[in-house]
Write a sequence for this structure.
């Protein structure tokens, strides 16, 4: 005997099929499927899972009695199992009963009617079908229910069908809303990911710029220290070390300070080095120095002249007069190198003062 169990999704067809196998010695008809095997299913236990090409090969060998497409997949049954002399049982969609009557006229069918619609509804959700699959199956089921209403069912069953249709329509609405939310979520995730990548890219660029700036600063400081140390050792015979510290202030002889007169070369060479750096590199320092009477700092005349003579070091970096600069120096009479006389443009001697008294004569 061939027995087919039919009913809505989640009604318990598999449960009754297993009871028939265990308690009445029925054998299960294996449903051949070409869809991917689901989580929890086992090939050969929950059906036979093969590829489309393997199913085509079985048909060519005349081993398939019936095959069909539903819900986007192909299903089939083996001829040996359908026409077996043993008691066989399988699950059947009730819309296919006419096809089975033609194949096996003596087939027996049982339609399992739900008493509580919440049970098959819960079971259907547990199958974790994709939203598209679930919507497709629900819509098809609603269409089948509409056909059933025209049959000779009693009014109680019709009311159940109406209630089931409303529940299924509500489920479709939920799935469609969930699908829209999922699309919005995916869009937001994509935008957030894009922004995160942009931020990371900007961080990398900032780090590159900062590292480049640090390297440039270290190179300029190293160059400054070399020029400043050379000038200081030439300006002061007791100087053996000169550099700028992390505070960018000059440090002489590893931070040891000497007599007050040492401040003249220390400061004068410091600003001269800044001027030279502005000629060598594009740094934020004006190419202009104004030096006011350095001999007031207690330095002797000979050492002062030696310091002032070093101002010509700036000329070495004025390549082809492409980096013009200016130094204005006020100092005592003849307190400068002999070859600087040609640079003197104003001299105050005798009664000649920079500021003159302005006497206005009264007009009669």
């Amino acid at each position: 005997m061939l027995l087919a169990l039919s009913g809505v999704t989640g009604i318990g067809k598999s449960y009754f099929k297993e009871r028939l196998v265990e308690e009445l010695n029925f054998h299960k008809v294996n449903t051949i499927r070409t869809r991917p095997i689901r989580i929890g299913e086992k090939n050969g236990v929950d059906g036979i899972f093969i590829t489309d090409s393997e199913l085509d090969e079985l048909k060519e060998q005349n081993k398939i009695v019936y095959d069909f497409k539903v819900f986007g997949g192909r299903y089939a049954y083996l001829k040996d199992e359908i026409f077996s002399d043993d008691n066989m049982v399988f699950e059947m969609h009730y819309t296919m009963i006419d096809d089975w009557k033609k194949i096996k006229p003596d087939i027996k069918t049982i339609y399992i009617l739900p008493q509580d619609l919440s049970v098959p509804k819960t079971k259907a959700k547990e199958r974790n079908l994709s939203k598209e699959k679930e919507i497709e199956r629900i819509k098809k089921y609603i269409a089948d229910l509409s056909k059933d209403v025209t049959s000779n069912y009693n009014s109680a069953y019709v009311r159940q069908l109406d209630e089931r249709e409303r529940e299924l329509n509500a489920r479709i609405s939920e799935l469609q809303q969930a699908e829209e939310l999922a699309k919005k979520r995916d869009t937001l995730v994509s935008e957030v990911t894009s922004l995160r990548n942009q931020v990371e890219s900007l961080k990398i660029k900032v780090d590159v710029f900062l590292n480049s700036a640090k390297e440039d600063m270290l190179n300029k400081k190293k160059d400054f220290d070399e020029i400043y140390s050379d000038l200081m050792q030439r300006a002061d015979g007791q100087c053996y070390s000169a550099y700028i510290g992390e505070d960018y202030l000059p440090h002489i002889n590893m931070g040891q300070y000497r007599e007050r007169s040492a401040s003249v070369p220390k400061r004068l060479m410091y600003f001269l080095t800044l001027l030279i750096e502005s000629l060598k590199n594009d740094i934020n320092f004006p190419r202009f120095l104004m030096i006011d009477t350095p001999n007031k700092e207690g330095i002797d005349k000979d050492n002062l002249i030696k310091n002032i003579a070093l101002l010509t070091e700036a000329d070495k970096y004025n390549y082809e007069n492409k980096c013009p600069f200016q130094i204005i120096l006020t100092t005592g009479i003849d307190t400068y190198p002999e070859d600087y006389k040609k640079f003197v443009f104003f001299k105050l001697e005798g009664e000649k003062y920079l500021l003159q008294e302005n006497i206005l004569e009264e007009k009669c």
Summary: The longest strand covers residues 64-70. The mean pLDDT is 82. Residues 278 and 285 are 6 Å apart (CA to CA).
